[in-house]
Design a protein that fits this description.
alpha+beta; Alpha-Beta Plaits; 4-stranded antiparallel beta sheet
Length: about 130
């Protein structure tokens, strides 16, 4: 069964970059391998994670999402103390999960793989004189 999973850091803080991003990708792959799940697509953005994973049908969508969130939070907060001081918990309690059939699997994979191309440029708001 394929699952498209999306989750964010608490308060959607932009903390998933540099070494944290690299380590998070490694940890997600380790957890997937531990369960025999296949990572089809993975994109870590500074403030959220997109994942397309193929898991055994006996694993519920909530189980899959929580395995990734729980494991990565524990390890990352242990290895990167600034995450403990900046956030009460690493991940927001919410997440998005949708099952993906064979017809839409390619579409979801393409969507996840192109997320870094869709990052909007910040536009100065009202009262932001002199900022671009």
């Amino acid at each position: 069964m394929g699952y498209h999973v999306v989750w964010c850091p608490k308060y959607r803080r932009r903390v998933l970059d540099g070494r944290v991003k690299t380590r998070l990708e490694e940890l997600i792959r380790v957890k997937a391998a531990e369960h025999g799940w296949e990572i089809v697509a993975l994109e870590v953005m500074p403030d959220h994670v997109y994942l397309f994973v193929k898991a055994h049908p006996k694993n519920s969508p909530s189980y899959v999402a929580n395995q990734f969130k729980g494991y990565t939070s524990h390890v990352l907060r242990e290895e990167f103390p600034h995450l403990r001081s900046q956030l009460p918990t690493l991940w927001s309690r919410s997440y998005f999960v949708a099952s993906v059939g064979t017809v839409s699997a390619t579409t979801v994979q393409r969507y996840i793989e192109t997320q870094d191309e869709k990052v909007p440029k910040r536009v100065a708001g009202p009262g932001a004189v002199g900022r671009a």
